[in-house]
Amino acid sequence: MSALSEHVLDEIRELPAKYPQHRSAVMPALDLAQEELGYLTPEAMSEVASALQLDPGYVEGVATFYTLFHLEPVGKHRFYMCTNLSCTLRGANEMVDHLKAAIGVHEAEQVSKDGLFSYEEVECLGACEYAPVARLDHRYQTDLTPQKIDALVAERRNPKPEPPHPAAKAAALPAKRGGKRKKSG
Amino acid sequence: VAEQRGTVGGPVLTEWFKTKDLHKLDVYESLGGYAGARKVFKEMTATQVIDEVKGSGLRGRGGADFPTATKWSFVPKDHPGPKYIVVNADESEPGSAKDRYLMENSPHMLVEGAMIASFAIGGHQAWIYIRGEYDRPYEMLRDAIAEAHAKGYLGDHPFGTDYPMDVRLYRGHGAYICGEETALLESLEGKRAQPRSRPPFPAVKGAWGMPTAVNNVETLSTVPWIIRHGGAEYAKRGSEKAKGTRMVTVSGDVQKPGNFEIEIGVTYRHVIEELAGGPFPGRTIKVFWPGGSSAKVLPGSMLDTSTDLDGLKALGTMGGSGGIIVMDDSHCIVKAAARLLRFYAFESCGKCTPCRVGGNWAVRTYERILAGEGSRIELGILERVSDGLQNGRCLCGLGDAAGWVIESTMRHFHNEYEEHTLHNFCSAEAALVHA
Q: Which residues does A117 contact at the CB level (< 8 Å), separation at least 6?
C-alpha cells in the first residue's frame, strides 16, 4: 500500500517533461503529495523520489529547506501569521495571541482538537500596506483585527453552503482600499 | 535638501491602474498594451531593443540597481543553446509589496516585459519564479499567460513572426534567500536555495547551466512603456543619474500605508508625509528604513533625504527594493532590530559560516539585552558580530544586511541601546506610560 494514490503518482511522473531538466519537478511533485496527504511523510517523500528517479535523501533535503513544506500534521486551515516588522508595528503579536485563544492552541504547529486549525508565525508576506496580514486557505487576510480573526475562525467551524460563483469573490484584497491607493506620485 | 521633483512626467507603471479589468488581455491591449512587444517582434533587432532601454537609463528595481540594458548585453549573442530570462517575483524583502501590487493589477505588463527582454537576449523562454505565498498574483499571471497563448502572442508565431516565445511560471516554497539571484536559480533547478559562488555569472551560466538574465518584476514591467514611448522620454523623469520612476511601499507607523509610484528624486518627506499620510496624530517619526529592512536606517531628522539612488548610496544606505518602513516614537529601536535579526538568522541558508553563526549569535545577544541581562559585553558582541557579518565575508548580501541593521541602529540610537543594555530601561515604553 503506497502513501500516495496512483493517480497522484501518475501526475508526478508527468511533471519532468515540463522543465528543461527533470530535477525542477521536485517541488511541484512535493506540492501534489502534500495536497493529497496534508503533510509530507517519509514514505511520501520516498515515493516522490522514486517517481522522479531521484535520491530520497535529496528529496527530503529539498522538503526540509522550504517553509511551505510541512513534515508534521497541520490543521485543515492553517494561519500563516506575519510577525515581521511592518506587521509587528501594527499589532501582529496581539493578533497571534488572539488567534491562539480563538483556535485553542498553546503554540505554533499545535493542531486544534477538532483538527481544523493550526498556525505558524511567518516572515514578511509582501502585503505590508495591509498590516497586520495573514495567509489562510490560499488567500491573504488583511488589516487583521481580533473581530476579523473571530469571524474567519467561526466561518470555518460552521461553513455555509458553497456560493454559486466562488471564483467571482476570490479577491481577498479589499477593492475599495486598493482603488484608493492606485494614485501615483 | 534635494530639489523637489515629481512633476515632469506622468506615471509609467501605474498609468492605467484606474482602468477596470486591466488584468484582462483585451482591456490591457485597448489601452496600448502589447504594442511594445508587437513593435519589438515585428520591427526591431535585439541590439535596437537593448539600445532603447540603455537610453532610458533603467536600472534594476529588485534592489541591486544594476543597469538593465547592460545586464542583457552580458548574455552572449553567439551561444548555440537555449538562453533564458528569469523573472525574480520572489518579493520577500520585509517592507516591500510593490511587485505583488504590480502583478495583481497588471499581469500582462509583466508578461509583455518578459517577452521583450527575452527577445533582447535572443531567448525564447522566460521563467517567472514567483513566491509560493503569492496565490492570487500566481493565478492572475497563469490566466494572463493562457490568454496570451490563446491570442497567439505567445507560441510559435507571436504577432505573425517566426520567433517562438513562451512564458512559464515556477512557484517558490518559502525562503527569503530565493530573492538572491543565484539562490533563485538553484531553486528553479529543484535544489535547496543556496547562493552560488561567482564567477561564473548567470549571464554565462545561469538557469539549467544556460546563459540567463535575472530581472525583477518592476524592472520588466517598465520595459513595455519604454518601447512605446522611447528611452529618451523615460529618461526625462527622475534625477540626474537615477532615471525614471519607481514603486515604493510605505508601511508601519503611517496613516495611509500603500504602494506609490514616485519620480526618483522626490524626498522621503514627500513620500511619507504627503503620499502615506504621515505619522499618527501626536506621534513623530523616529526612524525609517529607506529601501527594505536590509537598507541601513535613517533617523526621522533625515526625512528630507532624496530618494535619488546615488544620493542614498553616498549616505551609506540604499533605495533597495523600495520598501519604506516607518517607525514612530512609540516603538523601541532595540526591539525592532532584535526582530529583524531573528528574521535574518532564520532565513540564513546556512552555506556561509559568518552568516549562519553570526545571525544566531546576534539573536541570543539581543535576547539577553531585552531580558535585562545585558552589560557592556553585550554591546561589544553586537559591534563585533555586526562587523563579522559585513564586507563581503559571505557569498551573498544576506549576512551584510543583518550586519547593517545592527550597525545602523546602534550608530543612530546609541543612547537607547545603552539604556536598554546597561539600565534595562526602554525610553519608548516609558514615554507611552507617561503619555
A: A75, A76, A77, A78, A79, A103, A105, A111, A153, A156
- Check: CB of residue B112 under 8 Å from CB of residue B33: yes
Q: CA-nearest residue of chain A to B84?
A: A20
Could you report the per-residue pLDDT of A93-152, keeping only the tens digit for each? 999 999 999 999 999 999 999 999 999 999 999 999 999 999 999 999 999 999 999 999
Task: Tell me which chain A residue has its CA closest to the CA of residue B93.
Answer: A124
What angle, rounded to 10 degrees, do the helices at A92-103 and A146-157 form? 30
Q: What is the pLDDT of residue B10?
A: 83
Task: Give the residue from chain B lying closest to A54, CA to CA.
Answer: B190
Give A61's contacts (C-beta < 8 A, 6+ positions apart): B192
**pLDDT tens-place string over residues B113-153:** 999 999 999 999 999 999 999 999 999 999 999 999 999 99
Query: How far is the C-alpha of B341 from the C-alpha of A47, rounded, in Å?
Result: 38
Rounded Cα distance, B13 and B18, in Å: 12
Amino acid letter for position B281: P
B261 CB neighbours in chain A (<8 A) are: 184-185
Distance in angstroms (rounded) separating the CA atoms of residues B153 and A31 = 30
pLDDT tens, residue by residue, B271-326: 999 999 999 999 999 999 999 999 999 999 999 999 999 899 999 999 999 999 99
- The residue written with cell numbers 535613517 in the block is B298
Integer Rg of chain B from CA? 22
User: In angstroms, rounded to a whole number, what is the distance separating the alpha carbons of residues A149 and B181?
Assistant: 36
Identify the sign of the CA torsion A143, A149, A151, A157. positive
Task: Name chain A contacts of B347, Cβ cutoff 8 Å.
Answer: 123
Number of A/B CB contacts below 8 angstroms equals 177
* Chain-chain contact of B323 with A130 (C-beta, under 8 angstroms): no
Strands B166-171 and B125-130: parallel
What would the DSSP string read from start to end of A117-149?
EEEEEES--S-GGG-S-EEETTEEE-S--HHHH
Cα atoms in the Cβ-side hemisphere of radius 13 Å centred on B373: 6
Please judge whether A123 and B133 are an interchain contact, meaning their C-beta atoms are less than 8 angstroms apart: no
CA–CA distance, B368 with B121 (Å, rounded to integer):
52
Q: Residue B208 and residue A183: Cβ atoms within 8 Å? A: no
Cα separation, B149 vs B143, in Å, equals 10
Other C-beta atoms lying within 10 Å of the C-beta of residue B357: 17
